[in-house]
Write a structure and sequence with these properties.
Structural class: mainly alpha
Number of domains: 1
Order of helices and strands: HHHHHHHHHHHHHHH
Shape: globular
Strand content: under 5%
Radius of gyration: 20 Å
CATH class: Mainly Alpha
CATH topology: Tetracycline Repressor, domain 2
Number of helices: 15
Amino acid sequence: MPHALDRLAMADRARQAIHLSGLSQREVAAHLGLDETKLSKSLSGVRRLTATELFSLATVTGATVQWLLGGEALVSVPPSGSDVQESGQEAHEHSPRQRAIVEAAWELVADRGFDEVRVLDIAGRAGVSTATVHHHFPHKRDLFGAALKYSVKLAFDRQVAWLSDLDDAQERLRRLLELQSPIGAAARQEWSIWVQAWARNSVGGRAPDPEYIESYRRWWSTVRAAVVDGQTQGCVRPAAPDALADEITSVLDGYGLKVLTGTLSMAAMRRQMDAYLDRAVFIHVPDKESS
């Protein structure tokens, strides 16, 4: 549990995030599923926001969890444009209206597929005109790029919120891979965006989208960082970190695709990922108390 100064600093960041988002405290409390009194206590530093609440606050305001916490994460590699910033304004990549458009595009593309979604649909979901959508995103493909970046932000925020306090590298790597698996509706929507990116980049010999390449590189780098940390702690096998990160991400991608396409259950994926990690990645060190 952080000391009072930590809570006060986090509360100050949270107040800045809400102010810059253009939302009222009541609207934010409703999104977080909190009584407004509880949120007020968190914003005054009396009560600490939970990991779930931090993630929700970052999502609704457009800030990153890392910025809200005011420090570097142990594992995560931040998405482009969302490194720790000195000002709250810089931590918000889009205006409230832009965020509404991006979130609407993300939801619709994830649920229906890019080719089935019209700009008119996105405008309607976001509560703006099609002219406003085109003003911020001149081409429909720009909306897909923004949706992909939004998925990267969600993944990054989730990692920082739930992994920053885990010191054990083995537990952190296992948890990282679980967080990035298609567990739950939101995670399946993220995977839908990724699968569509894979499909779009594999068609007809077109050059891969640089945004996709950079986004995947950051995910791969997150896994590599976790591998290196595990090797330093002596709980991950001594292999070339690049090769092991390639292997781990490929295994997760394969299992995730099977779950998404209905050929493997989520429970089976969890069992098989755990078995793979225990067999091929982790070194089992005897308990210190029993040695």
